[in-house]
Structure formats: C-alpha cells, structure tokens
C-alpha cells in the first residue's frame, strides 16, 4: 500500500492498534484512546539513552538464557546496524525490542511476561533506597522463589536446579493441571498454583508473575513469613528429617535482629534479656555462636531505641536532653543506613541472577567484620544511655563528659561529637546569660537559678544562686561563679541602677560565633579561648558596674560619710553636737521630741566643718530615737541615722546599718564619758581656788581628784584604743580593699569584714558580753562620781556661801557699832560649822566606797582583758595598767601570762 | 509492501533504499532472536514511531496492554 512518507504518530498508532488487535479502525477506539493516554503521559524515558547499554543488556539476557550462539549473532547484527547509520534513534528501537522480547522457555502467560519484563527492565541502579521501598512487587516474589527450594545455600545455582527441586519438594497439594507452553517445566507452575491457592489472589498474581524469574539462580535466603506456610507444606511433603537452617537464613534473620525485630530463628528472650537462637533448630555450634554474637548488636540497638523513645515522650526533659536524643537519633540513622546497605546487598544478590559465586555473598563472618565498627559505636552509645538514665540538664552534660575520658580515640571522638551537641544548649544559655543577663530556663537545666519571688532590693544577694548539681563537669567552680557574677551584675545594672546600657557597649568583646563552634573550642586546646571570654566579660562588666556605682551613686562617698558621722569621725561636729545636746538629753527620754533634736543637729552641722560636705550626704543624716524604757534619760535613746536606698542598700544592707548603729551607740557612750570627765576636771579647776579657805575639805577634794584622774586615764586609754586600734586600722584596710576591688562582691565582702572586726573589737559581739558589762559598770561608776562630786561641791559651795555671808554680816554689824557677833549668832555659826565638818567624813567614806568599787571593777576588767582572744585587747590591758598599779592590788593579775601572752580563762 | 512503505518514511533517495532494506532485515532478525512476536508490519510501524521520538517504554507498555486485551 502506498503510504505517504511521513505519517503522524497518531495515525501510526492507530494502525498499530489495528494490526495488533486485528480489528478494523472503528473498533479500536477505546484502545486507541488508552494508547494515546499512556504515551502522552510517559513522555520522557526514565533510563539513559545509551544504545550500547541496551545492547549489552540484550546480550546478557541472551547469555542468561544460555543462548550464546544467539548472543553472538546479535552482536553481529548490532554491528551491522551500527554501521548502517540509517536509523537515527537506534537506542529507542533496541529498547523497545528488548522490552518486548520473550524468553522462549517461559510460559505463554502474558501477564507473567509483563511482570517479569517489568521486573527485569527496571534499571537497578536508579534506586538506592532500602529494598522495601523500591520494588514492592518483586520483594515477596524473591522470597517466594526462595521458598521453592530447601537445599542449603552452598551454591546450588542454575535455573535448572530450581525446577528440579521444585519438582522434588512439592509433594503436598497436587498441582492443578495447567496448559503449558513447550519448554516449560510444569513444576514451577505447580508451585505457583499451590501458592496461589494458599495465599490469595493478590499475592498470587505477583507470585505467578514472577514465576519465570524464580528460575534465577542464587539460592540463598530463608523463607519469610509469607512463605513459611510453604515451607511447612514442603516439610510435610518431605520424608522426615529436621530442617537445617542455612547460613543465608541466619543472615536474613540477623539483618532483622539488627533492627530489633525478631527473626524466624533468633528471638528476643525477655527473661534473660538477650537474643537467643531457637533451640530446636538444627544449627552447627559455630554458626549459632556467631549468630548470637551478632545479635548483640540488635540488643544494643533496642536499648538505645527504647531510651530515645521514652525520652521523646517526656515533656519535662529539657533542651539538653532533647539534643542528646537528637544526637542518638543521628547515630541510629547512620546505623540504619548501614543496615539498608546490607539489605540492598542481599537484595542485589537475590535479583541479579548472575552467578556471583561465594566471594561476595553475605555470610555471618562477613557481617561480623562489617559490623565491628558499628558495634563499638553502639556499645559506646548504650553505655552512655545507661550512664545518663534519669539525668537532665547540666548533669547530663557532665555524664557525657565523663565518657570522653577514655584512651580509645575512636570512642573519644564519638563522645566528643555527642558532647558538643549536648552542650550546645548549655552554652547558648551561658552566652545569653553573660551577654544579656537573660535567663530563660523552663526546665531548670542551667546552673544559674533565679528566684522569682525576690524583689529588687535583695536582687544582688538572693535572687540568683548557683545550682551546683547542674554545673557541667567541664566548667570549674571558679568559672561558674564568675558566670553567675557577670549575669547578676548585668541584671543589677538594669534593674536596680536603672542603667540600660546595652551590653555590647559595655563590653568591647564582640559576641561570639555560634556556640557549637565554641563547644568544639571548649574541648580542644582552645580552652583558653573560652576561659578568656568569660574572663573578659567578667572584667568588663564588673568594671562598668563599679564605675556606675561610684560615679552615679557615689558609693565610696557614702562609705566615708558613714565613717564620719556614724563612727564619730568628724570630731568637731560631734563635740559641738554634744555641747548643744547636753541640756536636752539630761531630761527624761519621754519628753524629747524628734524635731527639736533634728533642729539641733542642723545647727551643729551648719556651725562646723560638716557644712562643707556634699548635700547628698547631709540629706541622709538624721536623728533617731531608740525605744524608750522607763527611767531612761535622753542619753540612752539618742542616736544618729543615715538613710540608704537604691543600689547603695546592696552594700549597706539593713543588717549592716544595725551594726553601724550599735557601734555608734557604744562610741557615743564612750564619748559621753569623756565629756563628763572633762566637766569634772573643769569643776576642779574652777572650784579649787574657792575652796582653799576650807582646809577641812582638802582631804575630800584630794580624794576626789585622785579618783577622777584614775578615771580619766582609763577613759583616755579606751578612747585611744577605740580610735586608733579599732577604727583607723580597720578603716584603712577596708579602704584599700575597696579601691582594689574588681567586682561588687569583693566590696561587699570587705565591708562586712570591716564591720565584723569593729564589732568584735568594740566588745559588741556575743563573745565579749562579759567585758562589755564590765565596761558599762565602769561607765556607771564614772557617772556616780560625777554625781557625788556635784553633791560635794554643792554642799561645799553652799557652806562657803554661808560663811561668807556670816562674815559679811559681822562686818556689817561692826560698822553699825554693834557687837560684831552676838553670842547666839556665834553659837549658831559654830554649830553649823560643826555640822558641816561632821558631814565631811560621810563624804569621805562615800568617796572611798566609790573608789574601792571602781578599782574592783577595773581590776576585773583587766583580768578579763588578759584572757581575751583578741590581741589588741590584751595590749589594752598593758596600757591600762602601765605602772602596774592594779597588779599590785590584784593577786590574780600577778600570775604570769604564759607563752602566748595570754592567761587561760580559768582564773 | 509494508517494508517499502516503512522505509519510505525513513529515506527519500533510492540510494538509501538498500541500506534501509538492510536495516529492516537486521531489525527483523534481532526481533526474531529476541522472540518479540512482532511481525514485519508492526515492526515497521514501531520503528517509525520510535524514529519520531516516542518513548519506547510507553510504547512497549501499550503494545503489551493491547496484546493482553487480545488474549483476554
């Protein structure tokens, strides 16, 4: 028929349909539509357009069918075709012919052909995913055909072998007769049929479809679950004999066990928590042992898997734990990758149908070798999992870190890798904390804990603490303290000092790169870099904080102000204040009003050098009246006060202020004693001249003077001790430390040490209560003396006054010309003088008692001093008794002081 | 003849006719070796379709389907 040169594909296609179907054009409409659709949808070929590849395939196929002559013929033809160069698309036609080719030995069932060709034609190297994804249809098929034979794997290859085996094995259900094509062995068909009967239509289709390829040689492997029934039937068919498990069967089982799934022969025994080969299987000992050794890998895998599965459900596990699980997942993925490679290797051998021989087949030994490295890996991971049970947060990181201390470099690198992943959250917490002062730690994993109930005034002291259990073992205690301090400083600045300077301005250090890099740095020799970062951040932040405190809040100025006012440093002010306050404070305490006293304070300030102080300081100075107990005079309730707030209150906490007030109290009292004694002295000076005319008083006055001198000496020594030994030295030390302080904690510590020293040296702490009481007793005596002396002087002066009056009157009378003195007046005068003179011994004795009392107290005080533990107090005792005046009187003081210059306390 | 018709689509000059005829012979022989079951006319149609760029995979599946339809 004369056809035009070029026909359109559609027309050609229609012709094709007509020819194949053998019908006229009108009838083929449906098929034609179908054909057009198929061709239209599969437009691009999925394989490479390589002519030679296809030719090779054809040759291989022919060889496989044992048609070497035909293969040679084909080569010849192909060469001819190639030389002719008429066809432009040789690949295409060759591929088509290959697809349509049929093995003459195969049965005529077109369906089977299709499936076979489909199976064969799919390019094997286009897929790399595990076998169950690639060719689902062929999967069970191969297992099926494994099921067709029962001989050990020792190399019975060859398609003919299969047929014969199938023949022998199928004793059981009689195969239904089927139409045969010439050249087909009907045993395989029978197999397909009986299987079809047993397994249902779906599988049967795939099964029978693969009948031809069941003749492909490698006879490894064990039947899987599907064909288990088949083997059973076969077994029934066989005449007795225990079934021997082939090594290939074991290999397949092992591959399942590697994933934690029970194989046919190797199952997990829960009682003993290990994999065991089923006892009744007939297996040589060496194979059994090797299989069990390999099964350990599955056990390790299960353990790790269980851990990660459990933990992934646990909501409160925290970020560190989650990254740990992620790291484990990653490792398991690698493991699965290996498994899939092994599986595909197995699959490859199943499918290829080429006699590869035993060199590259999977055996248990080969598996042992290949899984050696993964086994070490999994062992390490399982050990890690065990060790990390129940831990989270920084503890988990410490646990993992503990495992990096091993000599095995492989294990070490693995654990270090995991550690770097695990410590990533910890480090990111850390960096956020030290650069921003922010802490977002919902699972309590970080080692800095924040207490949300604490308010800003206690921020520095109470709000942030170290959670010691969460400190990872790769950070030292010192580092973690520094970290805590840095974050605390930043928060302090932000909240208490109201200083919102962003950290980057504060710290010239640029923010680091991603923490994982630092994690790696952390563990390698660049540990110094990490330490350096922390140090730099610490240094800069603290410096900035101190700057702010000093400049904006003048911390050091306030400290000095405290010294001047509360610790009586500003002498002229204190003296003037006392002068002004004296008339007020002798009144009973209940009559005092605060505003009066404040007014007096202001006056004192304005009149002395204190007025040149900064107004900030003066603003905070105030009067405080202590609690009034009955019988108190003003002296007992008066106190100065200094107000602190804001950031200063962090250093001068309430406890500190109460310490200061106590010390003030003590110092004020001592000062008052000094003041009193000065008054006494003044009295002496003034009245000595006047009373020279009354010789009978001279004894009393003399005694008075002596006692007063003793007391003056005592008080002087005390004052010296307090001022120089206690206050000045401690203050100097404090000042030095504060100037050199690197961060706020140092300042606070130094300040507290200062207060402690002062308190103990001023006899205010609990250990020196006895001494303090003695001292108070001394002070009381001084007051007594003052009172006594006042009384004496009053009486003496009154007497003097009277006598003068008498003399006056006498003179007056003489001038008037009368008797100077009448007898009665003289009598009265004499009587009065006699009375007066009689009262003198009373005064004397009173003074004597006072003296005696006083000296007793002082001696007791001295004894106590010499037994105290503080060196300076002991030296005070020497000074107080410099001429051993008391030692002469007090036998106890004569006992030697011993080697340490200290008497024992048992006196 | 179908062969002539087939080859007419491929080559125009009579000098090529021999080559074409030889090519067809070769292809027929290959087809016979491979036992594809294609007769001459069908083969020529297929050749023409392939030369025109049809995907051989799709074509082969079509042919198989058609054959199946014939059988069924």
From TrEMBL, chain A:
Localization, UniProt: Cytoplasm, Cytoskeleton, Microtubule organizing center, Centrosome
Family affiliation: Belongs to the TUBGCP family.
Coiled-coil spans in chain: 790-817
Compositional bias ranges of the Polar residues kind: 209-218
Pfam family, one: GCP_C_terminal
Start and end residues of each Gamma tubulin complex component C-terminal domain: 555-886
InterPro entries: GCP, GCP_C, GCP_C_sf, GCP_N
Domain Gamma tubulin complex component protein N-terminal: 251-552
Domain of life from the UniProt record: Eukaryota
Single GO BP term: microtubule nucleation
Name this protein carries in UniProt: Gamma-tubulin complex component
């Amino acid at each position: 028929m004369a056809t035009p040169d070029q026909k359109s594909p559609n027309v050609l296609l229609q012709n094709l349909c007509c020819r194949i179907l053998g019908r006229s054009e009108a009838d083929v409409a449906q098929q034609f539509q179908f054909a057009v659709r198929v061709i239209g949808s599969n437009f691009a070929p999925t394989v490479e357009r390589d002519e030679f590849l296809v030719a090779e395939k054809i040759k291989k196929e022919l060889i496989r069918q044992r048609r070497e002559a035909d293969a040679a013929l084909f080569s010849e033809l192909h060469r001819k075709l190639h030389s002719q160069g008429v066809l432009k698309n040789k690949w295409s036609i060759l591929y088509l012919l290959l697809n349509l080719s049929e093995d003459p030995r195969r049965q005529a069932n077109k369906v089977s052909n299709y499936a076979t060709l489909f199976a064969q034609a799919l390019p094997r190297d286009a897929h790399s995913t595990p076998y169950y994804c690639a060719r689902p249809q062929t999967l069970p098929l191969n297992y099926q055909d494994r099921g067709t034979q029962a001989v050990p794997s020792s190399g019975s290859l060859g398609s003919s072998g299969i047929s014969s085996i199938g023949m022998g094995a199928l004793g059981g259900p009689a195969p239904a007769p089927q139409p045969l094509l010439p050249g087909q062995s009907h045993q395989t068909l029978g197999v397909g049929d009986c299987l079809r009967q047993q397994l249902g239509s779906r599988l049967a289709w795939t099964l029978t479809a693969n009948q031809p390829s069941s003749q492909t040689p490698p006879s490894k492997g064990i039947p899987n679950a599907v064909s288990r029934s088949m083997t059973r039937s076969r077994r029934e068919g066989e005449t007795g004999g225990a079934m021997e498990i082939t090594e290939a069967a074991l290999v397949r089982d092992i591959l399942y066990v590697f994933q934690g799934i029970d194989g046919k022969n190797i199952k997990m025994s829960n009682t003993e928590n290990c994999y065991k080969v089923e006892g009744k299987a007939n297996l040589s000992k060496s194979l059994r042992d090797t299989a069990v050794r390999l099964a350990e890998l599955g056990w390790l895998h299960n353990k790790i898997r269980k851990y990660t599965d459990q933990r992934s459900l646990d909501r409160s596990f925290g970020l560190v734990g989650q990254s740990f699980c992620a790291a484990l997942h990653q490792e398991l993925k690698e493991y699965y990758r290996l498994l899939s490679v092994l599986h595909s290797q197995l699959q490859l051998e199943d499918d290829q149908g080429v006699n590869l021989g035993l060199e590259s087949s999977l055996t248990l030994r080969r598996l042992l070798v290949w899984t050696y490295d993964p086994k070490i890996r999994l062992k390490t991971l399982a050990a890690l999992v065990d060790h990390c049970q129940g831990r989270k947060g920084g503890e988990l990181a410490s646990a993992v870190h503990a495992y990096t201390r091993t000599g095995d470099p492989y294990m070490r690198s693995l654990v270090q890798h995991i550690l770097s992943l695990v410590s990533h959250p910890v480090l990111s917490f850390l960096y956020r904390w030290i650069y921003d002062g922010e802490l977002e730690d919902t699972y309590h994993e970080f080692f800095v804990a924040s207490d949300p109930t604490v308010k800003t005034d206690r921020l520095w002291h109470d709000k942030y603490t170290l959670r010691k259990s969460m400190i990872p073992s790769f950070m030292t205690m010192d580092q973690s303290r520094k970290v805590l301090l840095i974050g605390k400083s930043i928060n302090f600045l932000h909240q208490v000092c109201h200083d919102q300077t962003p950290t980057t301005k504060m710290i010239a250090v640029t923010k680091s790169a991603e923490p994982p890099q630092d994690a790696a740095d952390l563990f390698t020799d660049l540990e110094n870099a990490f330490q350096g970062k922390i140090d730099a951040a610490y240094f800069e932040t603290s410096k900035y904080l101190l700057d702010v405190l000093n400049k904006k809040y003048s911390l050091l100025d306030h400290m000095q102000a405290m010294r001047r006012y509360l610790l009586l440093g500003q002498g002229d002010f204190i003296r003037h204040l006392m002068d002004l306050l004296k008339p007020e404070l002798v009144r009973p305490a209940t009559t005092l009003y605060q505003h009066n006293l404040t007014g007096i304070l202001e006056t004192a300030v304005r009149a002395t050098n204190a007025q040149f102080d900064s107004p900030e300081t003066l603003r905070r100075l105030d009067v405080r009246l202590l609690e009034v107990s009955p019988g108190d005079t003003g002296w007992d309730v008066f106190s100065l006060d200094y107000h602190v707030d804001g950031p200063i209150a962090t250093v001068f906490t309430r406890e500190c202020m109460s310490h200061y007030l106590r010390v003030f109290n003590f110092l004020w009292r001592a000062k008052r004693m000094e003041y009193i004694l000065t008054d006494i002295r003044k009295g002496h000076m003034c009245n000595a001249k006047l009373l020279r005319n009354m010789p009978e008083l001279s004894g009393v006055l003399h005694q008075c003077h002596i006692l007063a001198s003793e007391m003056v000496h005592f008080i002087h020594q005390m004052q010296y001790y307090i001022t120089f030994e206690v206050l000045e030295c401690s203050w100097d030390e404090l000042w030095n430390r504060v100037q050199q302080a690197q961060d706020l904690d140092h300042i606070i510590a130094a300040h507290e040490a200062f207060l402690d020293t002062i308190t103990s040296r001023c006899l205010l702490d609990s250990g020196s209560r006895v001494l303090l009481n003695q001292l108070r007793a001394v002070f009381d005596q001084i007051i007594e003396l003052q009172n006594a002396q006042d009384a004496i002087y009053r009486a003496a002066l009154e007497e003097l006054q009277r006598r003068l009056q008498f003399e006056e009157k006498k003179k007056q009378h003489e001038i008037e010309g009368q008797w100077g003195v009448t007898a009665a007046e003289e009598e009265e005068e004499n009587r009065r003088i006699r009375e007066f003179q009689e009262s003198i011994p009373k005064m004397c004795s009173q003074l004597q008692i006072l003296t005696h009392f006083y000296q007793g107290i002082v001696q007791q005080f001295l004894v106590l001093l010499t037994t105290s533990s503080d060196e300076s107090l002991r030296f005070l005792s020497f000074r107080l008794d410099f001429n051993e005046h008391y030692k002469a009187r007090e036998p106890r003081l004569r006992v030697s002081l011993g080697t340490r210059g200290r008497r024992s306390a048992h006196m | 003849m179908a062969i002539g018709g087939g080859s007419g689509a491929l080559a125009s000059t009579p000098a090529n006719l021999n080559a074409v005829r030889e090519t067809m012979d070769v292809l027929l022989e290959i087809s016979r070796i491979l036992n594809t079951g294609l007769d001459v006319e069908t083969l020529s149609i297929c050749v023409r379709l392939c030369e025109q760029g049809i995907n051989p995979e799709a074509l082969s599946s079509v042919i198989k389907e058609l054959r199946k339809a014939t059988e069924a």
